[in-house]
Amino acid sequence: MRLAKTIVLALICAAAPLLAHNVAARDAAFLRQNQGAQIFPFLYLGAKHMVTGYDHLLFLFGVIFFLYRLKDVAVYVTCFAVGHSVTLLTGVLSGVHVNPFLVDALIGLSVVYKAFDNLDGFRTLLGFQPNTKLMVLGFGLVHGFGLATKLQELHLSTKGLVGNLVSFNVGVELGQLIALSIILLAMTWWRGTSDFVKRAVAANVVVMMLGFLLIGYQLTGYYTTRAV
Fold first, then answer.
1. What is the residue extent of each domain of the chain?
2. C-alpha separations of 42 from 16, 168, 174, 218 in Å
């Protein structure tokens, strides 16, 4: 139980200072002023954004919660990576703009979905089971739009934009790999204790509550900005 609390508390603590899920002010200033290709800075910023992206980490935590084989972890994480890579790149390059509050609310919904799925809620309460790989891919597309909206707000220079975006996306993948490795190590240890079976339901209930909290926060921001 202590490990479960540690994982969840770490995610909550990460969420507190980053609740709006924006790019840090110093990083945003660099991105706005940047002209031309900057491969390594964008690589670093992509990794940093993923490692500090509490909503992405909550979703990944839910995705791997009951995956015991590395092969299965690789398949699901690949589905997620393909999804968010496609919409991150096409969203910025094509200029497709979506409301960031609504996108982040859907990202919160992805967290709720995965926790509900882990609790076997679909089969137990609704009598059907969605294709989990397709759902992870689909929500990966949503998460990618979440990343794209943050970059679109910065009005990046078109000089070297493609290379910078590819570098940023590679950085996101590296950051995802780092965060996922830490989560997997912690989960592997926890699964080896008798505490895991006892506390698995409670852990997913907490994750679901955090997902609802994210949805509520983002929808509040959406309606507040519309009212202004």
1. 2-16+37-222
2. 25, 5, 12, 27
